[in-house]
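Friendly challenge for the regulars: who can give me the C-alpha cells for this chain first? No prize, just bragging rights.
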Amino acid sequence: MQHKIIFCGSVGAGKTTAIAAISDKQVVSTEAKASDEVKSKKATTTVAMDYGVLNLDGGARVHLYGTPGQQRFDYMWDILSTGGLGLVILVDNTAEDPIGEMEFYIKSFKSFLKDKPFCVGVTRMDLGPRPRLGEYQEKLIELGRYAPVFEVDARSANDVKTLIRGLIHLIAVGV
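First reply, four minutes later:
Bragging rights claimed.
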C-alpha cells in the first residue's frame, strides 16, 4: 500500500530536517543557496521539494513530500499535494507570528483540506516557549478546524514519527 503525505510550513520550520529524520532512503532535496531575505535565517532553502520514503510494517510505504517554504514557490504546493492523503503543517515557534503562520497554511491549502486531514507540528519550542500548544488549539477551534497539535523536534525521528502516526490515524478513521 502506498501513501503520500505533504509537509508544509515557512522557511526554517523544519520540513527538510523532519523528512530526513524519518526517511528510510536518501532524501531527494532541491536545496539552493538562499539569495534573498531567507539568507538571514539559513544558508540554503528548498526551491522545489524534498522527497523521502518511510517504510511501515506490513510493506506499506509513506511517500513524504516537503513543499518550499517561500511563497514565491507556492505554485509547487498544488503540484506536490496532488494525490496526497494528508498534510503536516510545521510551525517555527520562534517566528514573529507562529499562530498566524499556521492559519496562513490552513488557508493556503484550503482546497486540499476540504476532504483531507492535517496535523500541526510546532518546532523550536525549546527556544520560544510561547505561544503554548493550547493557543494553537484555540485558534483551530476559532477557525472551525480539528487537528492534533504536537511539540516536535524536527531532528528527532521519534517526534516526527509520532506526528505521522497521528496523521495516519486521522486518515484511517476518515476525519
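Residues 38 and 85 are 30 Å apart (CA to CA). The chain is about 30% helix and 25% strand. Your move, everyone else.
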